[in-house]
Write a structure and sequence with these properties.
binds stearoyl-coenzyme A; two-stranded antiparallel ribbon; alpha+beta; globular; acyltransferase; 12 helices; 9-stranded mixed beta sheet; disordered C terminus
Length: about 400
């Protein structure tokens, strides 16, 4: 009879979990920075809120965002004008619409990741699905599994309402799954659709203005596994170590809550400064835990670009060279804040830069922030085969 220790030993992988492939997707409707305030106040019949329109214009101007993509375009909103009024009972309709749209978008991203991975979809053993846009079961993860042709035995987990920090949470979970289940291949899929929290402007609800200035829709997918199969699987980033930290007494600074009229969210004006005061301690603790002494400018950085001010503060605090956050800034500029999925786009951007021959450090850090305030940190090692992609 085998012992529990022996059984456990056999289940564990030999090597660390690694990102084996990345795919991304966005809806077709593109919103340009200079047009958005006019568009938003027109389609929500809110031209009388001139002060709020001016504030949205200021946020758009300073956001560092050029364009964003959305599912809820003018035509769809025309069929659901009640979405503009947060007092109306629209949660059911929003969940129905998001539940149909999320897997459709996620399947595009996942199909790209699976094609790059080079193995059949049926080889996926675990699915981790992350979103803030859901609210029912069975959920978008089951529909995604069916659209991709995953096996009925695939082990599914949903991460809901973690907001932007789920970019790190879902990846840490995939690392644990891959390293503790020999041969496991985890598909981590994200789908973020803002229609769940889209409202017209209202006095006293500045979060709505901020949200309309920075958020956008997308899907992302990553395949994670340990002990890559020779000649088929090519690791992009090895996942060396991951931590989660909560900043004490900040539970009211970033919040999300499902209400009868949709997702209510709040992002306090203090968020970027709170992150600035806590990020370096978090990084030092993380690197000390694994006995690495790191010079911040010797690393590559995949920081969640939650807002331009957050990137500015991190860059200034850590004394980073301007090129260090270039991938985060490009993703922010081209797509906006896409919640948890944004750091997946940043990893994709980093590997593209490296594949083009641009210098990317060997070791790096991914950081994501969300309700809590939660800071997710993962130390990554860029695997050697990047230039071949
Ligand atoms: C296309 C479709 C879109 C549809 C949208 C629908 C939305 C649904 C989305 C649901 C998503 C829910 C997910 C929640 C999870 C969040 C996790 C995170 O990323 S957490 C997110 C992490 N991200 C952040 O925390 C954003 C960090 N902040 C920034 O990056 C910048 O402050 C900035 C870009 C917003 C403005 O640039 P900056 O250089 O500062 O420029 P200025 O100094 O000139 O200020 C201009 C105006 O902005 C004001 N204002 C500022 N902040 C806030 C606020 N929080 N609150 C309110 N207002 C704010 C400020 O008071 C000023 O007003 P005024 O004096 O002119 O009247």
């Amino acid at each position: 009879m085998a012992t529990v220790q022996q059984i456990r030993h056999v289940q564990r992988s030999d090597g660390p979990a690694a990102v084996l492939a990345i795919g991304t997707a966005n809806p077709a409707s593109c919103m340009l920075r200079n047009d958005y305030a006019d568009y938003y106040f027109r389609v929500t019949n809110s031209e009388h809120h001139a002060d709020l329109k001016d504030k949205l214009k200021r946020i758009c101007k300073n956001s560092g965002i050029e364009r964003r993509y959305v599912h809820l375009d003018e035509e769809l909103l025309g069929a659901h004008p009640d979405f503009s009024d947060r007092a109306l009972l629209t949660l059911d309709a929003r969940i129905d619409m998001a539940s149909a749209a999320m897997p459709e978008l996620a399947v595009s991203a996942a199909a790209r990741a699976i094609a790059e991975w080079g193995r059949p979809a049926a080889d996926v053993t675990h699915l981790v699905f992350s979103t803030y846009s859901g609210g029912k079961a069975p959920s978008a993860d089951l529909r995604l599994a069916s659209l991709l042709g995953l096996c009925p035995t695939v082990s599914r987990t949903i991460l809901s309402l973690h907001g932007c920090s789920s970019g790190g949470r879902a990846l840490q979970l995939s690392k644990e799954l891959a390293e503790n289940n020999r041969g496991a291949r985890v598909l981590v899929a994200y789908s973020e659709i803002t229609l769940i929290g889209f409202y017209g402007p209202q006095e006293g609800r500045l979060d709505t203005i901020l949200g309309n200035g920075i958020f956008g829709d997308c899907a992302g997918a990553i395949i994670v596994g340990a002990d890559p199969v020779d000649c088929i699987e090519r690791p992009l980033f090895e996942m060396a170590f991951a931590t989660q930290t909560t900043i004490p007494e900040t539970e009211n600074e970033i919040t999300t809550r499902l209400m009868k009229g949709g997702l209510d969210f709040h992002v306090s004006i203090r968020v970027s400064k709170l992150l600035k005061s806590n990020i370096e301690r978090c990084l030092i603790d993380t690197f000390e835990s694994i006995g690495i002494s790191a010079e911040w400018n010797d690393l590559f950085w995949a920081i969640h670009p939650g807002g331009r001010a957050i990137l500015d503060h991190v860059e200034q605090l850590l004394g980073l060279g301007v090129e260090k956050l270039a991938a985060s800034r490009r993703v922010l500029r081209e797509y906006g804040n896409m919640s948890a999925t944004t750091v997946i786009f940043v990893l994709d951007e980093l590997r593209r830069r490296r594949a083009r021959g641009e210098e990317v450090a060997e070791w790096g850090v991914m950081m994501a922030f969300g309700p809590g305030i939660t800071i997710e940190t993962m130390v990554l090692h860029a695997a050697g085969s990047l230039k071949e992609n």
